[in-house]
Amino acid sequence: MNYLIRKEKSQDYPKVREVIKSAFSREGKDLVFNEWVLVEKIRESEYYINDLSLVAEAEGEILGHIMFTPMKIEGDSIPFDSLALAPVAVHKDFQKRGIGKHLVRAGIENAKNLGFKSIIVMGDPEYYTKFGFEKASKWKIGTTNDFNDNCLFALELVEKGLVGVSGIIEYCPPFYNEKGELI
Length: 183
Ligand SMILES: CC(C)(COP(=O)(O)OP(=O)(O)OC[C@H]1O[C@@H](n2cnc3c(N)ncnc32)[C@H](O)[C@@H]1OP(=O)(O)O)[C@@H](O)C(=O)NCCC(=O)NCCS
Hints:
CATH topology: Aminopeptidase
Mean pLDDT: 94
Keywords: Transferase
Strand content: 25-35%
Bound molecules: coenzyme A
Largest sheet: 6 strands, mixed
GO molecular function: acyltransferase activity, transferring groups other than amino-acyl groups
Low-confidence stretches: none
Pfam families: Acetyltransf_1
InterPro entries: Acyl_CoA_acyltransferase, GNAT_dom, MshD_Acetyltransferase
Domain N-acetyltransferase: 3-158
């Protein structure tokens, strides 16, 4: 199947919403908040990076979407800049055909070109290790101080991109609710 990976445009937003819904919809999940709402919150915020918000398109249809946002790794004294990969979604009818892989690879390339040094992702170990991600605990990067998250992964975009970097990850504000909880 021929498809193109490109930056999303505002006219894609309704179709992107449908793709994310089709990929993530789970019965019984809270309807107040979902991944497509997160993407829309990010777009309205100062943390949106159009160069890192990509779609896979074939014949005018959107088949997949990926978004990266700035992230901080809060060290003992200084915060380090990184990038969060979340979410990535491929329409349920087009999964397992390589589209997700191309979106992730294109995003990694764009992030490198923009000068980012690392990417953090929370997700399936089997999936993300294919792209070179390693357990974030290797660098003492985690969601809590014990750094034993099994689903948190990090990728260096430049040699030693994470050397000397350790701490607790902090997504950009749209990822948190009014109580400061990760949504
Ligand atoms: C996860 C997702 C984006 C992958 O996209 P995709 O287009 O289906 O994946 P690809 O076809 O590019 O798969 C690439 C490789 O990962 C494997 N893979 C695909 N989905 C996987 C999963 N959920 N877990 C583990 N491996 C997976 C494929 O078998 C393939 O392996 P190969 O390279 O050895 O052949 C897609 O399945 C999806 O939208 N899932 C629902 C939403 C989600 O969970 N997003 C991720 C969390 S933010």
